[in-house]
Please model this.
Amino acid sequence: MAHDAAALAVELANMAAADHRAAVHANSDDPAEQLAWRRLTARHGDRLGEIMDEYGWPTAELVGEEAAHAAWLIAQHSDRQLDVQRRALHLMQQAVSAGSASPRELAFLCDRTLVNEGRKQVYGTQIAGVKNGSPIPWPCEEPERMNELRAEVGIEPFDEYVAKFSPA
Model:
């Protein structure tokens, strides 16, 4: 099993590296680049589904911090595979409850899944667009509690978070 976990860690890290290289094409004006991004994230989502079938959620204990983060990133970008996102969310919730996964990453995946389902997000991590130079989050369940909820899972206040995306 240790060898399998090591090989899985390398595979997840390689998938995340490919994701990072291709992510710049997610919103490309070139349809071929967008399609390449969608195909990559679909392949990764399919593979993450197989990994979850075999191992459950790939926790840091199993695959190490970098590969556990990679698994989260792959789930986060499986936007066109809601079944994969929902399963990852469920397994990650169990892992967070057991102290084996990041509550911060879970919050991002929770919001991403809710937005993809057409529902209101909880933590305000998903940005719908930019208006007058300011990033605007997708609608939130309790916008007045957003920063309090963010703090509970280790996410900076919304204003600090969006400042990272604002043009300097």
